[in-house]
């Protein structure tokens, strides 16, 4: 099971309806550069076994089923109606299962039907997520006739003990081999990692991050491990064999990993599980560092660190402090419920902090009392 949690098929109308989802045909410039992803979910399909942390039906609320050609066409066609003229690249993505673990006939059928949209010119390419141990010359040869451009691997960890404890069923060597084979065939590669798995700790997670960075993927996703109802991990949690990572510790760790990948020019396209109705209810998560705005919390911590570094370097902190940020970064600087502002006020006895939008700044920088900082 590859840890990708986008919108659910059962919530298609809410997902693709601009009036509900907040999408706009007058999209902002940075949105135009992101591919428009049409997600097709094949939860748990092709998985040889169930990992300790996995309960796919909880995450996607969809049972194991390969969509029929008719349903696939209808789903893709519906999403395309809401693409918007500003989006340059469109990709159909098969998420949730172990794509190359499917029967060869199912792989070819799905790619054939999705590929029709590429031939018609309404979609640019296809992508999917799969396990590292499904990548070999034989499975990759199946893809030759289809317009697949991007392949994501559920790496989860580069520590073999952690992989074994999590009952992942593959090794770090499988991941290295898979990445090498994909690079030989010029695929865009995405690697997914998890933090807080059984047997994992901050040192091992950062080592996984460095090993992933050494493989130079195009992008990564970072997921915190949460305890899902119905998973083996839930049993371990209930009998005391597994203790999930606290939210604050997880935010700090993921922040370090984000900065590591950024230093190596690797995009981090997701941090934290994507919010859904089931997860928001709270009944499906027994424990663990889940937050609907996890990525925002990480960015807010980075902005707090930058402001703190500048204020620490000043000989004396003024009663009034002005912080300039790009308009799109105001909420990151403030933090949820203004926690960053309150933290700085309390730590440095500041009476007033003004956040001033400055469109000339990049979204990853700020200026405190004329002193610039960026990450």
How would you describe what is shown here?
With 375 residues, the chain is of the alpha/beta class. It folds into 2 domains: 9-292, TIM Barrel, CATH 3.20.20; 314-374, no CATH class. The protein contains 16 helices and 13 strands. The strands form 3 sheets. Strands 1-2-3-4-5-6-8 form a 7-stranded parallel β-sheet. A hairpin with a 2-residue loop joins strand 12 (365-368) and strand 13 (371-374). Helix 5 (69-80) runs parallel beside helix 6 (104-120), helix 10 (202-214) runs parallel beside helix 12 (247-263) and helix 12 packs across helix 14. The chain is globular, with a radius of gyration of 22 Å.
- The secondary structure category is alpha/beta
Gross geometry:
globular
| CATH class descriptor name of the largest domain | Alpha Beta
Q: Strand percentage, roughly?
A: 15-25%
Which key phrases capture this entry?
single chain, 7-stranded parallel beta sheet, 2 domains, 375 residues, TIM Barrel, 4-stranded mixed beta sheet, globular, 16 helices, alpha/beta
Compact summary:
With 375 residues, this protein is α/β, with parallel strands linked by helices. It is built from 16 helices and 13 strands. It has two domains: 284 residues, Aldolase class I (TIM Barrel); 61 residues, no CATH class.
Topology:
Elements: H1 12-16, H2 18-21, H3 29-32, E1 36-41, H4 56-60, H5 69-80, E2 90-95, H6 104-120, E3 125-130, H7 137-142, E4 148-156, H8 160-165, H9 172-184, E5 188-195, H10 202-214, E6 219-224, E7 227-228, H11 232-238, H12 247-263, E8 267-271, H13 277-281, E9 285-287, H14 294-313, E10 320-325, H15 330-334, H16 339-348, E11 352-357, E12 365-368, E13 371-374
Parallel strand pairs: 1-2, 2-3, 3-4, 4-5, 5-6, 6-8, 10-11
Antiparallel strand pairs: 7-9, 10-12, 12-13
